[in-house]
Protein backbone atom coordinates (compact mmCIF):
# COMPACT_ATOMS: atom_id res chain seq x y z
CA UNK A 1 0.00 0.00 0.00
CA UNK A 2 1.25 3.45 -0.90
CA UNK A 3 1.95 5.10 2.45
CA UNK A 4 2.45 8.56 0.95
CA UNK A 5 -0.03 11.16 -0.19
CA UNK A 6 -2.88 10.15 2.10
CA UNK A 7 -5.21 12.96 3.10
CA UNK A 8 -8.35 12.34 5.11
CA UNK A 9 -11.39 13.54 3.15
CA UNK A 10 -12.90 14.97 6.30
CA UNK A 11 -10.25 16.29 8.69
CA UNK A 12 -7.25 16.55 6.35
CA UNK A 13 -4.97 14.40 8.57
CA UNK A 14 -2.21 12.54 6.73
CA UNK A 15 -1.84 9.49 9.00
CA UNK A 16 -3.89 6.32 8.72
CA UNK A 17 -4.01 2.67 9.66
CA UNK A 18 -4.95 -0.12 7.20
CA UNK A 19 -8.54 -1.21 7.69
CA UNK A 20 -9.53 -3.67 4.92
CA UNK A 21 -7.13 -4.45 2.10
CA UNK A 22 -7.61 -5.92 -1.40
CA UNK A 23 -11.40 -5.68 -1.44
CA UNK A 24 -12.96 -7.04 -4.66
CA UNK A 25 -15.98 -5.75 -6.58
CA UNK A 26 -18.43 -8.43 -5.42
CA UNK A 27 -21.42 -6.69 -6.99
CA UNK A 28 -20.48 -5.82 -10.58
CA UNK A 29 -17.26 -7.86 -10.69
CA UNK A 30 -15.17 -5.27 -12.45
CA UNK A 31 -12.00 -7.10 -11.44
CA UNK A 32 -10.28 -4.39 -9.42
CA UNK A 33 -9.10 -4.58 -5.80
CA UNK A 34 -9.18 -1.57 -3.51
CA UNK A 35 -8.02 -0.75 0.01
CA UNK A 36 -9.86 0.94 2.84
CA UNK A 37 -7.98 2.75 5.59
CA UNK A 38 -8.98 4.49 8.81
CA UNK A 39 -7.83 8.05 9.50
CA UNK A 40 -5.85 8.01 12.75
CA UNK A 41 -7.18 11.43 13.73
CA UNK A 42 -10.95 11.26 13.13
CA UNK A 43 -11.40 7.49 12.44
CA UNK A 44 -13.13 8.02 9.08
CA UNK A 45 -12.93 4.86 6.98
CA UNK A 46 -12.17 5.79 3.38
CA UNK A 47 -10.77 4.26 0.23
CA UNK A 48 -7.05 4.82 -0.35
CA UNK A 49 -5.92 5.74 -2.88
CA UNK A 50 -9.10 7.37 -4.17
CA UNK A 51 -9.89 6.52 -7.83
CA UNK A 52 -8.95 9.10 -10.47
CA UNK A 53 -12.00 8.37 -12.64
CA UNK A 54 -15.11 7.20 -10.82
CA UNK A 55 -17.28 7.27 -13.97
CA UNK A 56 -15.94 3.93 -15.22
CA UNK A 57 -17.05 2.25 -11.97
CA UNK A 58 -20.70 2.97 -12.73
CA UNK A 59 -21.05 1.27 -16.13
CA UNK A 60 -24.02 -1.13 -15.81
CA UNK A 61 -24.79 0.16 -12.30
CA UNK A 62 -28.42 -1.00 -11.85
CA UNK A 63 -29.35 1.78 -9.43
CA UNK A 64 -29.71 4.03 -12.49
CA UNK A 65 -32.00 1.57 -14.34
CA UNK A 66 -35.79 1.68 -14.13
CA UNK A 67 -37.29 -0.85 -11.72
CA UNK A 68 -39.96 -3.37 -12.60
CA UNK A 69 -43.22 -3.79 -10.70
CA UNK A 70 -41.84 -6.53 -8.41
CA UNK A 71 -38.81 -4.43 -7.50
CA UNK A 72 -41.02 -1.43 -6.75
CA UNK A 73 -43.30 -3.55 -4.59
CA UNK A 74 -40.32 -5.07 -2.74
CA UNK A 75 -38.98 -1.58 -2.15
CA UNK A 76 -42.24 -0.46 -0.57
CA UNK A 77 -42.25 -3.41 1.83
CA UNK A 78 -38.59 -3.96 2.68
CA UNK A 79 -37.10 -0.48 2.36
CA UNK A 80 -39.75 1.61 4.06
CA UNK A 81 -37.63 2.32 7.16
CA UNK A 82 -34.77 3.67 5.04
CA UNK A 83 -36.49 6.17 2.77
CA UNK A 84 -37.83 9.46 4.08
CA UNK A 85 -41.51 9.35 4.98
CA UNK A 86 -43.09 12.81 4.74
CA UNK A 87 -45.46 14.05 7.43
CA UNK A 88 -49.04 14.89 6.46
CA UNK A 89 -48.24 18.62 6.48
CA UNK A 90 -45.65 18.58 3.68
CA UNK A 91 -47.90 19.98 0.91
CA UNK A 92 -46.36 23.48 1.13
CA UNK A 93 -42.77 22.29 1.17
CA UNK A 94 -40.09 21.88 -1.49
CA UNK A 95 -38.03 18.69 -1.73
CA UNK A 96 -34.72 18.01 -3.45
CA UNK A 97 -33.68 14.35 -3.77
CA UNK A 98 -29.88 14.58 -4.01
CA UNK A 99 -28.63 11.54 -5.92
CA UNK A 100 -32.05 10.53 -7.15
CA UNK A 101 -30.89 7.40 -9.05
CA UNK A 102 -33.72 6.01 -11.18
CA UNK A 103 -36.21 8.53 -9.74
CA UNK A 104 -38.35 6.01 -7.82
CA UNK A 105 -38.38 8.07 -4.61
CA UNK A 106 -39.27 11.29 -6.46
CA UNK A 107 -42.06 9.46 -8.25
CA UNK A 108 -43.47 8.29 -4.90
CA UNK A 109 -43.34 11.86 -3.56
CA UNK A 110 -45.42 13.33 -6.39
CA UNK A 111 -48.43 15.13 -4.96
CA UNK A 112 -46.94 15.13 -1.45
CA UNK A 113 -44.85 18.30 -1.86
CA UNK A 114 -45.40 21.71 -3.42
CA UNK A 115 -42.32 21.34 -5.61
CA UNK A 116 -39.92 18.51 -6.38
CA UNK A 117 -36.36 18.58 -7.71
CA UNK A 118 -33.68 15.97 -8.28
CA UNK A 119 -29.92 15.92 -8.62
CA UNK A 120 -27.99 13.19 -10.40
CA UNK A 121 -24.53 13.62 -11.92
CA UNK A 122 -24.44 12.60 -15.57
CA UNK A 123 -26.09 15.03 -17.97
CA UNK A 124 -27.81 12.55 -20.32
CA UNK A 125 -29.23 10.45 -17.45
CA UNK A 126 -30.54 13.60 -15.74
CA UNK A 127 -32.19 14.82 -18.95
CA UNK A 128 -33.89 11.47 -19.63
CA UNK A 129 -35.10 11.22 -16.05
CA UNK A 130 -36.39 14.77 -16.08
CA UNK A 131 -38.44 14.07 -19.22
CA UNK A 132 -39.72 10.78 -17.81
CA UNK A 133 -40.79 12.17 -14.42
CA UNK A 134 -41.66 15.70 -15.48
CA UNK A 135 -39.51 16.93 -12.59
CA UNK A 136 -36.44 19.22 -12.91
CA UNK A 137 -33.34 17.05 -12.49
CA UNK A 138 -30.04 18.90 -12.19
CA UNK A 139 -26.70 17.36 -13.11
CA UNK A 140 -24.51 20.34 -12.18
CA UNK A 141 -24.11 21.57 -8.61
CA UNK A 142 -23.33 25.02 -9.98
CA UNK A 143 -26.72 25.26 -11.70
CA UNK A 144 -28.38 23.77 -8.64
CA UNK A 145 -26.91 26.47 -6.40
CA UNK A 146 -27.70 29.27 -8.85
CA UNK A 147 -31.36 28.33 -9.26
CA UNK A 148 -32.36 26.93 -5.88
CA UNK A 149 -30.25 28.76 -3.26
CA UNK A 150 -32.30 29.21 -0.08
CA UNK A 151 -35.44 27.72 -1.64
CA UNK A 152 -35.45 24.12 -0.38
CA UNK A 153 -37.21 22.87 2.77
CA UNK A 154 -36.01 19.28 2.66
CA UNK A 155 -33.03 17.54 1.07
CA UNK A 156 -32.93 13.74 1.00
CA UNK A 157 -29.74 11.83 0.23
CA UNK A 158 -30.42 8.08 0.32
CA UNK A 159 -27.22 6.05 -0.10
CA UNK A 160 -25.35 8.92 -1.73
CA UNK A 161 -22.65 10.26 0.61
CA UNK A 162 -20.68 6.99 0.57
CA UNK A 163 -20.14 7.63 -3.18
CA UNK A 164 -18.94 11.21 -2.69
CA UNK A 165 -15.24 12.13 -2.71
CA UNK A 166 -15.73 15.69 -1.42
CA UNK A 167 -17.87 16.06 1.71
CA UNK A 168 -17.06 19.76 1.91
CA UNK A 169 -18.58 20.49 -1.49
CA UNK A 170 -21.66 18.37 -0.73
CA UNK A 171 -22.32 20.09 2.62
CA UNK A 172 -21.65 23.55 1.18
CA UNK A 173 -24.30 22.75 -1.44
CA UNK A 174 -26.77 21.52 1.21
CA UNK A 175 -26.16 24.64 3.28
CA UNK A 176 -26.66 26.92 0.27
CA UNK A 177 -29.87 25.25 -0.91
CA UNK A 178 -31.73 24.82 2.38
CA UNK A 179 -33.87 27.46 4.01
CA UNK A 180 -33.16 28.23 7.67
CA UNK A 181 -34.74 25.42 9.66
CA UNK A 182 -34.67 23.16 6.58
CA UNK A 183 -33.96 19.46 7.01
CA UNK A 184 -31.24 17.28 5.56
CA UNK A 185 -32.11 13.55 5.69
CA UNK A 186 -29.23 11.15 5.02
CA UNK A 187 -29.04 7.33 4.82
CA UNK A 188 -25.62 5.63 4.57
CA UNK A 189 -24.31 2.08 5.11
CA UNK A 190 -23.33 1.80 8.78
CA UNK A 191 -19.63 0.99 8.94
CA UNK A 192 -19.87 0.31 12.71
CA UNK A 193 -22.54 -2.41 12.29
CA UNK A 194 -22.36 -6.07 13.27
CA UNK A 195 -22.75 -6.91 9.57
CA UNK A 196 -19.35 -5.49 8.58
CA UNK A 197 -17.72 -7.18 11.57
CA UNK A 198 -19.17 -10.50 10.40
CA UNK A 199 -18.69 -10.28 6.63
CA UNK A 200 -15.73 -7.86 6.35
CA UNK A 201 -14.72 -7.48 2.68
CA UNK A 202 -17.77 -9.51 1.62
CA UNK A 203 -20.18 -7.05 3.26
CA UNK A 204 -22.56 -5.83 0.56
CA UNK A 205 -22.66 -2.35 2.11
CA UNK A 206 -18.95 -1.94 1.35
CA UNK A 207 -19.69 -2.08 -2.41
CA UNK A 208 -16.03 -1.66 -3.36
CA UNK A 209 -14.88 0.15 -5.43
CA UNK A 210 -17.92 2.49 -5.72
CA UNK A 211 -18.21 3.35 -2.03
CA UNK A 212 -15.43 5.77 -1.19
CA UNK A 213 -16.00 6.65 2.47
CA UNK A 214 -18.25 5.77 5.39
CA UNK A 215 -19.09 8.65 7.74
CA UNK A 216 -20.47 7.63 11.15
CA UNK A 217 -22.32 9.79 13.71
CA UNK A 218 -19.06 11.38 14.94
CA UNK A 219 -18.23 12.53 11.41
CA UNK A 220 -21.71 13.91 10.85
CA UNK A 221 -21.29 15.89 14.07
CA UNK A 222 -18.04 17.35 12.68
CA UNK A 223 -19.76 18.26 9.41
CA UNK A 224 -22.84 19.77 11.06
CA UNK A 225 -20.68 21.88 13.40
CA UNK A 226 -18.64 23.08 10.43
CA UNK A 227 -21.59 23.94 8.17
CA UNK A 228 -24.12 25.28 10.66
CA UNK A 229 -26.51 22.39 11.20
CA UNK A 230 -27.88 20.73 14.31
CA UNK A 231 -28.35 16.98 14.55
CA UNK A 232 -32.11 16.37 14.61
CA UNK A 233 -32.03 12.61 15.09
CA UNK A 234 -29.89 9.50 14.64
CA UNK A 235 -31.24 5.99 14.15
CA UNK A 236 -30.66 2.67 12.46
CA UNK A 237 -33.05 1.29 9.85
CA UNK A 238 -34.02 -2.26 8.96
CA UNK A 239 -32.72 -2.81 5.42
CA UNK A 240 -32.33 -6.42 4.21
CA UNK A 241 -30.21 -5.72 1.10
CA UNK A 242 -26.83 -5.49 2.81
CA UNK A 243 -27.37 -8.74 4.67
CA UNK A 244 -28.88 -10.63 1.69
CA UNK A 245 -26.12 -9.38 -0.63
CA UNK A 246 -23.42 -10.38 1.85
CA UNK A 247 -24.82 -13.89 2.33
CA UNK A 248 -25.25 -14.36 -1.44
CA UNK A 249 -21.62 -13.34 -1.95
CA UNK A 250 -20.31 -15.70 0.72
CA UNK A 251 -22.43 -18.61 -0.59
CA UNK A 252 -21.88 -18.17 -4.33
CA UNK A 253 -18.73 -16.06 -4.67
CA UNK A 254 -20.69 -13.09 -6.02
CA UNK A 255 -23.91 -11.22 -5.36
CA UNK A 256 -26.00 -13.68 -7.39
CA UNK A 257 -29.36 -11.98 -8.23
CA UNK A 258 -31.61 -15.04 -7.71
CA UNK A 259 -29.94 -16.00 -4.44
CA UNK A 260 -30.14 -12.37 -3.35
CA UNK A 261 -33.90 -12.28 -4.03
CA UNK A 262 -34.44 -15.58 -2.22
CA UNK A 263 -32.66 -14.27 0.87
CA UNK A 264 -34.46 -10.94 1.08
CA UNK A 265 -37.42 -12.09 3.20
CA UNK A 266 -35.42 -13.96 5.91
CA UNK A 267 -32.84 -11.17 5.95
CA UNK A 268 -35.58 -8.59 6.38
CA UNK A 269 -36.79 -10.46 9.47
CA UNK A 270 -33.25 -10.54 10.86
CA UNK A 271 -32.73 -6.85 10.09
CA UNK A 272 -35.96 -6.01 11.92
CA UNK A 273 -34.54 -7.72 15.03
CA UNK A 274 -31.07 -6.15 14.72
CA UNK A 275 -31.32 -3.10 12.46
CA UNK A 276 -27.76 -1.87 12.23
CA UNK A 277 -26.83 -2.07 8.54
CA UNK A 278 -28.07 1.41 7.67
CA UNK A 279 -27.50 4.67 9.55
CA UNK A 280 -30.13 7.41 9.28
CA UNK A 281 -29.23 10.97 10.29
CA UNK A 282 -31.49 13.99 10.20
CA UNK A 283 -29.87 17.42 10.36
CA UNK A 284 -31.49 20.82 10.65
CA UNK A 285 -29.98 24.02 9.24
CA UNK A 286 -29.50 26.41 12.16
ZN1 LIG B 1 -9.71 12.27 9.46
Overview of the molecule:
The protein has 286 residues and is α/β, with parallel strands linked by helices. It has a single domain (62-285), classed as 3-Layer(aba) Sandwich (Rossmann fold). The chain has nine helices and eleven strands. A seven-stranded mixed β-sheet has the order 6-5-4-7-8-11-10. It has a four-stranded antiparallel β-sheet with strand order 1-2-3-9, with no helix packed on it. The relative contact order is 0.15. The mean pLDDT is 91. It binds zinc ion (ZN). Zinc ion is lined by residues 8, 10-11, 13, 39, 41-42, 44.
Bin the strand percentage: 15-25%
CATH fold name, please?
A: Rossmann fold
How would the global form be characterised?
Answer: globular
**Structure ligands:** zinc ion
What is the H/E order?
EEEHEHEHEHEHEHEHEHHE
What's the CATH superfamily, by name? Vaccinia Virus protein VP39
Report the radius of gyration as a whole number of Å: 18 Å
Give the helix level as a range of percent.
25-40%
Ranges where pLDDT stays below 50 over 5 or more residues in a row are none
Mean of residue pLDDT values: 91
Number of helices: 9
Q: What is the β-strand count? A: 11
CATH architecture group name: 3-Layer(aba) Sandwich
Main sheet characteristics: 7 strands, mixed
Helix/strand-derived category reads alpha/beta
